[in-house]
Amino acid sequence: MVIGCPGSGKSTFSGKLHKLTGIPLFHLDLMNWNSDRTCVDKAVFLERLSNTIQKDEWIIDGNYGSTMELRLKACDTVVFLDYPLNVCLDGIKERRGKARTDMPWIEDENEEDAEFIEFIKNYNCQSRPKVMELLDKYSHKDIYIFKTRNEADEFLNQL
Asked: Which domain holds residue 8?
């Protein structure tokens, strides 16, 4: 599973990992969102996720804290893109207006979701401690924590 702050490049990293390994890739955002920017019913999301983690092999990118432990129980490897705030904010800016394979819509270049930006700004003090607690709980898994894009790229280059 590939996790990290929004804008860290989870989907980009996951796509490269998929190409190198041939392991099927799934995006939590595609399991959760409709193209009209509404969420699917929670039961539908959980069914989609459950069907995915029952497969022999998978790469799942995305956070979705409410299901992180479910995925941790099922996975053998975790990649945490643990990047500084400015890297993640830049990542959000760079993807605006571009088609993405991990989302069912294109984010408007001029669109600024203040609540989403605030979530990103608070990620290191609010979400990251919970992630680290879960990674500690599942420390028997293969866990890779990358602090820079170069570290993540070096990992991929070694595969």
From this structure: 2-158
